[in-house]
Structure formats: C-alpha cells, structure tokens
Amino acid sequence: MLLGQKYVTDDWTNVTPSIIAKLERNLHVQQYHPLSHLRQRIVNYFYGQFRSKSGTPSFSIYDNICPVVTVEQNFDSLLVPKDHPSRKKTDCYFINQDTLLRAHTTAHQAELISMGLNNFLVIGDVYRRDEIDRTHYPIFHQVDAVRLRTSQEIFCNVNDSENLKLFEHRGTESADKQACHSLEAVKVMEQELKSTLTSLAQAIFGKDVQCRWVDQYFPFTHPSWELEILHNDDWLEILGCGIMRQEILQKSGATDRIGWAFGLGLERLAMRLYNIPDIRLFWSNDTGFLNQFKVDEPNVHIQYKPISIYPPCINDISFWLPEDGSYSSHDFYDIAREIGGDVIEQILLKDEFIHPKTKKTSHCYSIVYRHMERTLTQNAVNKIHNEVGKAIAAKLNVVIR
Ligand code: PHE
C-alpha cells in the first residue's frame, strides 16, 4: 500500500520502507518549513512577474500531485532515450517495472499541457538513489515551470510582425535551435527565459548576485542551459532549462505554440540561502531547527545557527564483492539507511582492491555516524554497524572481511 493505493511488486521493486514512510511528509507545504518559505518566494515572484491584462496571475500552481508516476510519464513522454542511464534501477525507486516515484517534477509536464495549460509551476518531492553525504538525500524537492506562447504573443511588440513565424519547414537542427523552429522565435523565447531566471535569482539572493549561463543537454529541451550563481567564491549550478522539444507540445495538442521550461532543486538553494549545513536537517522534527524558521513573512532574512555539532563516530567496513557483477553501491547505501536512518551522515568509498591471485574485488567504506540532536556512544554505533554488516552479507551476497 502506497498513499492508499495498492500496487503489484516484481523484480524491479526497490522502494524501501524508510522512503515509503516519508511519502506523506510534504515538507514543501509544511507551515514555517524553510523549503516552504522558499517555495512561497518563488511562487510570489511568478505571480508578480506574469499577469494577464485583467491583472490575474498567469501561472497556476500544482503542489500536491501524487509522486507515484509511470515510466511513460517520467521518461517516455519527455523523449528520454530507452537506454538513458537515468532510467536504471540503480538510480530510481521503482514500485514495479511500470511505476516509480518520480525522479523529477518534469514528469507531469506533458499531462498538464494536454489539459490545456499554458503557464504552470509544478512543485513537489522527487526521489533518486544516490550517494550519501551532507548534500545528498534520496528525497528532495523541485520546482518545474512551463510557459507556452503563440506567435502573436511573442511578436506583438515587433514592427513587421506579419512576416515572423514560429515554425520553419525545411530547417535543420543546430546548436541554436530545433529543426522546426524559426531562429527569431527561439531567440525571443531564450531572452524571456533567461531574463526571467536571472531576475528570479536576484529576487532570492539579492540584486548583486553574479550569474552565468552554461550550455547543457536535456532530452526534453533544445537548446538547453544551466544557470550558475557565484556563492562564497564557488559557481553553484542552481537550475536547468531550455526551449521545449516541439514533439512534446505536438503530442500534447499545443501545436501552435512554442515553450520554455525549467527545473530547480529547492534544497540546494535553501541550504545556501539559510546557511543550513546538512540536508538531513530538513527532515528533522527538532524544535531547535524548526523554531528558527517560525516567521509569517517568507522574505525575512534568516541565517540558521547550529545548536551545536555533536561529534561523529566513524566505523569502517570491508567486503568482497560477488563475482557475478550484481553489486551496486546504491543497494548498499539503501540498506545502510534502512538500518541506521538519518544517523548515517556519510558513506565514503575509501579503498578498492583487486586480489592479484583470485581477481576478487574488495571495497572498503567509511561510515560516518552522527546524530543531529545528541552525542552517540561508540556502543550504540557498533550495534548499528554490525547490523549493517549482517544485512548486506545476507542481501547483497558480499563477504565481510
Ligand atoms: N528535470 C530536469 C532535472 O531534474 C530539470 C529541467 C526541467 C531541465 C525542465 C530543463 C527543463 O535536472
């Protein structure tokens, strides 16, 4: 049972109980939660920036769409190639071979366009199997946006606009545009997309934030870019965006429009904005964390002050991998999380070694244990650590050394 629905399981099923337990948290709409403040600031920006002639906001907001989606929604509808690495079982949480927890909020794009929407934001929780450290967590939150425009809308301010068209029939794809688009339509869209997003970055991080654009690739947009901002002397990638693949609009019935889209991750921004040092804090129910964000105005400047940092315990674990190649480190991370929960701060691959005679591979990992609200005893850590060892020996066919 997931969110009141029954699903069949099969050999693709890899969702874990600790992930399922968090499906109903919806941090992005939890009152006073930092992710909710940031979501509200982004929504307010779009409400303020885009209004119809009568003054009503153009963008509609979808922030409670169920995260259980089909492979078709998450990948096929977005033209993700059948052999694309993001489809792998080691990277996503599958409920069964046709159903998964969405890996991005873009999964809902085609459906919302089919419903006739031209301007919308989708905000929600997304799920990815990944490394374990202070900036990665298997669940995070994204904001996706789509804006579709007709020829009339984008060329209305241009002098001889009768000669300007969205589409071109014998075009070819280049770095600048898709085959079917006219260069002038793409340039107008690119300009609106980029100015919208740099002013969004300024609305969040202040007028003086430095931005730069980097070319990118996404299966569902072309051309595509990433926006980076300079933060504490580091260029930080904050979002991906681009001109939507016309095939997606065509299949969804928006044949007379051209569109731009973007997607951004809330945690990454919120950690910088509020100075939150560890991604696990977003999931904390501790009042020492939550009370620092108890403000009614989402624009209030807040800098999180760690109550104290409790000391870590670091234990190593080494094992021989099975010889059939079935080992994936992401399986190990999920099992460790299942047993240790949020007490596991980081898992580091310390050493990989191939035995010269037997040719067997051995991995050595350091597991960093740290509780967010108290000091852990070495005894308590050893217990968890032994459980982890037993579980992976049983489930992953590895041999502990
Ligand atoms: N879905 C992409 C991601 O998760 C972001 C994106 C959305 C890029 C929309 C382009 C357009 O990384």
Average of pLDDT: 95
Relative helix content? 25-40%
Radius of gyration: 23 Å
Name the CATH superfamily assignment of the largest domain: Bira Bifunctional Protein, Domain 2
Q: Would you state the CATH class of the largest domain? A: Alpha Beta
Count of β-strands: 14
First and last CA, distance: 38 Å
Largest sheet: 7 strands, mixed
Bound molecules: phenylalanine
Shape: globular
What would you say this structure looks like, in words?
There is one protein chain. By secondary structure, the protein is of the alpha+beta class. It has two domains: 17-282, Bira Bifunctional Protein, Domain 2 (BirA Bifunctional Protein, domain 2), CATH 3.30.930.10; 313-400, Alpha-Beta Plaits (2-Layer Sandwich). The chain has helices spanning 17-20, 34-49, 71-74, 109-114, 151-155, 183-205, 246-251, 266-274, 287-290, 329-340, 378-396; strands at residues 60-62, 68-70, 94-96, 99-101, 119-127, 139-150, 211-218, 221-231, 234-244, 257-265, 313-320, 344-354, 361-369, 399-400. A hairpin with a 6-residue loop joins β12 and β13. It is globular. The strands form three sheets. Strands 1-5-6-10-9-8-7 form a seven-stranded mixed β-sheet. It starts with 16 loop residues before the first helix and ends with a strand. The protein contains eleven helices and 14 strands. Bound molecules: phenylalanine (PHE). The site of phenylalanine has 11 residues, from β9 and β10. It catalyses: tRNA(Phe) + L-phenylalanine + ATP = L-phenylalanyl-tRNA(Phe) + AMP + diphosphate + H(+). InterPro entries: aa-tRNA-synth_II (IPR006195), aa-tRNA-synth_II/BPL/LPL (IPR045864), Fdx_antiC-bd (IPR005121), Fdx_antiC-bd_sf (IPR036690), Phe-tRNA-synth_IIc_mito (IPR004530), Phenylalanyl-tRNA_Synthase (IPR002319). Keywords: Acetylation, Aminoacyl-tRNA synthetase, ATP-binding, Ligase, Mitochondrion, Nucleotide-binding, Protein biosynthesis, Transit peptide. GO terms for molecular function: ATP binding; phenylalanine-tRNA ligase activity; tRNA binding. Residues 123-298 form the Aminoacyl-transfer RNA synthetases class-II family profile domain.
